Amino acid sequence: MSHLSVHVPLDGGRAYDILIGRGLVDAVGAQAAALGAKAAGIVTDETVAGLYGARVRASLERAGLRCGIIAVPPGEASKSYAGYASVCDGLLALKIERGDLVVALGGGVVGDLAGFAAATLRRGVRFLQVPTTLLAQVDSSVGGKTGINSPHGKNLIGAFHQPRLVLADTATLDTLVEREMRAGYAEVAKYGLINDPGFFDWCEAHWRGIFSGGPERDEAVAICCRAKAGVVVRDEREDGERALLNLGHTFGHALERLTQYDSARLVHGEGVAIGLALAFRFSARLGLCSGQEAGRVANHLAMAGLPTRLQDVPGGSGDAEAMLDAMAQDKKVRDGALTFILARGIGQSFIAPGIGRDDVRAFLQDELRG
Amino acid sequence: MSHLSVHVPLDGGRAYDILIGRGLVDAVGAQAAALGAKAAGIVTDETVAGLYGARVRASLERAGLRCGIIAVPPGEASKSYAGYASVCDGLLALKIERGDLVVALGGGVVGDLAGFAAATLRRGVRFLQVPTTLLAQVDSSVGGKTGINSPHGKNLIGAFHQPRLVLADTATLDTLVEREMRAGYAEVAKYGLINDPGFFDWCEAHWRGIFSGGPERDEAVAICCRAKAGVVVRDEREDGERALLNLGHTFGHALERLTQYDSARLVHGEGVAIGLALAFRFSARLGLCSGQEAGRVANHLAMAGLPTRLQDVPGGSGDAEAMLDAMAQDKKVRDGALTFILARGIGQSFIAPGIGRDDVRAFLQDELRG
Question: Residue span of the signal peptide, if any (chains A, B) (predicted)?
């Protein structure tokens, strides 16, 4: 089987590989056996279980591993204290020991939930990620962030726990609904916007191949994983540079919060798409980059079918004050100051701490009027 | 204020101090301020809250910190998924941010629960331990193990998370019930039995001073913390030597399991006391140490009011087969093999992997007949 590979060179015996290619779900068993595991607990959601559960289980059993499937309901609601308890207890019922593996088969919700369970089961067991959405393949399966939501907010409970291996089977994206594909694409474009203008050019030329499953898809996933891995290795705990990955996310998270995480109205990647467009228009307004570049960003995202304006949120996003309050609840807030990721141009983003509320309010008011 | 001090020289910026002395609960605020925290969430149980909550809160407020108290019901039942969720949400409601502190005020249950919440809140906030039982002062507040129980067993969910500081106020032990004091003393004696025969001699001569609150109490706590800190620094994740700290615990944990963790019948330290006596008698039976030394261990524990025989468990401990099954559920089991900590004499313990079920069964059967 031919595939691309990205190495994540973390220290302390935590380095791992990301393999990218079509058909990798059938390689889970061989890879798990190569890691010395005798048993594996497959954590997934009910939708993905129906599509790929049997194949992953068969692959593990062919390789001689004892295994079982723990399927949670699909959707963000499973990333809860109750979901966490049920996954942990499911893994314990399967008698997963310290040398065994947790296999996270699914999108970001499953990856975060299974990763957090693996981080804390018996104070840490190894886990293998099999991301089945574009978003999870380019973003949430790289970096070691795991966690669940609290009634007080998203991802407020969690741990850093690196996978031992990531198998990104790009053929699984063939079964992804179009809207989720587009949402994941916002994170793809983000990597160009952060610090790789050449990749953004390439995206403008090749995005259709990513959607249709051509070789561009594998290539894009590998480029994004390599970019994120580089950032994570240099700044694992987000004391500095890693914050750049939040380009578009300060606005995006606020929009998700204001729409009550109702995926019928807005999914994460859509919030990010609007957030990216806003971050560039806000940068242009502050005289940091040209309005032309901000326009180019919004145009490309719109071409790929993504929303780019506050008015694009079904049911509206509330007023500027509500957005400001929602941004202030972000867990990256320290002592109440707002930090944004802004840009001097496509591929020229930077961390901008201490942005004044008044500047943000005036910008958002104009956006809502426009 | 005069106090003893033990330094725990962990790497990666995780080194911390343990201060030991009378009256340290009033120093929490000054120490928290010195760590740069602006707010503190005090996690405690309802009993300890009534005894020391107001003093710790006043100390923090005097030092200019915003703070609040989260009190769980006393007892092991709070170390549950539900207890964990309520502590995390309580800390979030207090707006504890990454630079702030979680203060664990109480015994082992509170330390484990608050420590696990601190380890995972916002993927890790700092915590300060204020252990108020002898067991917590000499054992559970050193080493960074935090966690909760699952319906499948004790401490099966958790994380390694080191405190930033431990304040062991030995005057708080004046309010400890006698039975908990004795139970903690089993862990004190354990340190002598592991690798410090001179300390065991000293214990035989001075144990009454530990119970009555003389200077021997502070000295014993410091010696135990120093011993445990040394082991933890050399083997933080329990790949080797740290397992020695489980002397008496393989039997002890099995007894706790067989008595359904019903503290009316058996508390942890009582299980450990019986386990220590059994580990030495088992070692003598295997020809590793003399029966005289095994007798000396049991005599000293009995002198301090601790149980030393299976028959001492109110309601009985079940038969040998039940004990074996309970031991096989220990989370330290790998591939089903039983590992014991045995001894060639007082202060000469060692890790003995691969002990046969038949040898253990025959020993337990004789014990139950004796």
Answer: none
Interface test with B, best of A92, A96, A123, A146 (most B CBs within 10 A): A123
Which residue, A175, A205, A222, sits at the end of a domain?
A: A175
Which residues of A sit in the known binding site for Zn(2+)? Answer: 187, 249, 268
Chain A residue numbers with beta carbons less than 8 Å from the beta carbon of B87 are: none
In chain A, beta strands by DSSP E: 4-8, 16-21, 39-45, 66-72, 101-106, 126-131, 145-150, 153-160, 165-169, 338-343, 349-355
B144 lies in the same domain as B263: no
Dump pLDDT digits (tens) for B315-350. Answer: 888 889 999 988 887 655 555 568 899 999 999 999
Inter-chain touch B123–A158, beta carbons under 8 Å: yes
Residue A336 C-alpha, separation from nearest chain B C-alpha, in angstroms: 10
pLDDT at B212: 96
CATH number of the domain that residue A60 is part of: 3.40.50.1970
Chain A residues within 8 A of B119 when measuring between CB atoms: 159
Which has the closest alpha carbon to A62: A22, A21, A25?
Answer: A25
Please state whether beta strands A153-160 and A145-150 pair in parallel, antiparallel, or not at all (unpaired).
antiparallel
- Residue A188 shares a structural domain with residue A169: no
The answer as to whether B360 is a domain residue is yes
Q: Is B19 annotated as a binding residue?
A: no
Number of domains in chain B: 2
Q: Is B109 labelled a binding residue?
A: yes
Using the 3D structure, point to which of B148, B175, B202 is the last residue of a domain.
Answer: B175
Model confidence at A143, pLDDT cuts 50, 70, 90, reads confident
Whether residue A20 is found in the same domain as residue A96: yes
Tell me, yes or no, whether B171 and B257 share the same domain. no
Considering only the beta carbons, identify the residue of A81, A121, A331 that sits closest to B122. A331
Instruction: Work out the angle at residue A19's Cα, subtended by the Cα atoms of residues A15 and A21, and round it to the nearest 5 degrees.
Output: 170
Structure token digits, residue B63 = 């030092």
Domain that holds residue B21: 4-175
Contact A18, A225 (CB under 8 A): yes
Cross-chain Cβ contact B99/A151 below 8 Å: no
Provide, as residue numbers in chain A, all residues whose Cβ is less than 8 Å from the Cβ of B113.
none
Regions of chain B with pLDDT less than 50:
none
Q: What is the ipTM of this complex?
A: 0.90
